């Protein structure tokens, strides 16, 4: 697949880390950490007053888990991907739920005064907001309802059942307050996703427009060459018997050189490819080849890639996947395929692997061009590019292609 084909692909572009949604989540992470410190300040009095009602050390462990974890997540946020941040927020939502539920077995010296409530039940928003960041809306709202309704029995246990109606009212009040935080987080993340989708669509549209312009320029160049050189050479050859044959040969040689020059030039349009476009093209090519391969993108890179390198790496990847689909095993559903793209400041590397039946590379006939030409030859022909193929019978196959600056 050429870089022009990459541009023309209609497949949906992958979501690239570092977009608006990641920015929204990082911002909410810092706000969440600040809010946890504010809640700590508001709860510090209850924290010490209620220590006499629960098991020794429970207050300390629960307090560190509830108030300390948001600070750890915020510290890791600048270096974390969107997926990693969502996992961290989901883990905190679980930790918070465990802290709330563990209060019941830790409560050993009751009842508490009716006007006093366990400090953990007043912080429900600290659990519901991370849940909205980490999980799908239906899961986040379910978490909110469960967390809010569990407050009522906890308050009933705390005051020995003195005022059940007050506990129920507090639960409904908590739902109202936490729903606002959950809604804000859900809407903000959805807006970030929409911005990322719009940006990806704009990049794809711009790239297609650039490719169409480049193709038009190539066609104009080719038309001019045909008119000025090829036709002239044909006429000269037709009259070779009446003209200087050395001149005819010279014109033919010049025409061949111009055609070769043009052919070489078409492989570098556009001259450089942004990394986001390269990732989009790779994902689209994988999807067009097989739906049984998973693409994983690791690392990051700011500098663009030469289009010839980008095309060669993608084409080699496609050929490796085609070979896997055809030769890895008769039961396609039982073969696991993975494409791993590693981006770095120094270059890019793609590893295509499967756990199929494999083969002995030494036994591949010389006339089988899929590996020799379409993978090794295509990539190794470029300076600073490399391609290797590893396989063993019954141990799968791994193809690695890459380029370094």
Task: Describe this structure as you would to a colleague.
It contains twelve helices and seven strands. By secondary structure, the protein is α+β, with helices and mostly antiparallel strands. The chain has a five-stranded mixed beta sheet with strand order 2-4-5-7-6, with helices on one face. It has a two-stranded antiparallel ribbon with strand order 1-3. The chain is elongated.
Number of helices: 12
Principal-axes shape call: elongated
| Biggest β-sheet description | 5 strands, mixed
Q: Roughly how much helix do the residues carry, as a percent range?
A: 55-70%
Characterize this entry briefly.
With 405 residues, the chain is an alpha+beta fold.
Provide key terms for this protein.
disordered N terminus, 5-stranded mixed β-sheet, 405 residues, 7 strands, elongated, 63% helix, two-stranded antiparallel ribbon
Q: What's the SSE blueprint?
A:
Layout lengths: L2 H6 L11 H30 L8 H19 L5 H25 L18 H10 L2 H13 L1 H8 L5 H75 L6 H22 L5 E2 L1 H15 L3 E7 L5 E2 H21 L9 E8 L2 E8 L14 H12 L4 E7 L5 E8 L1
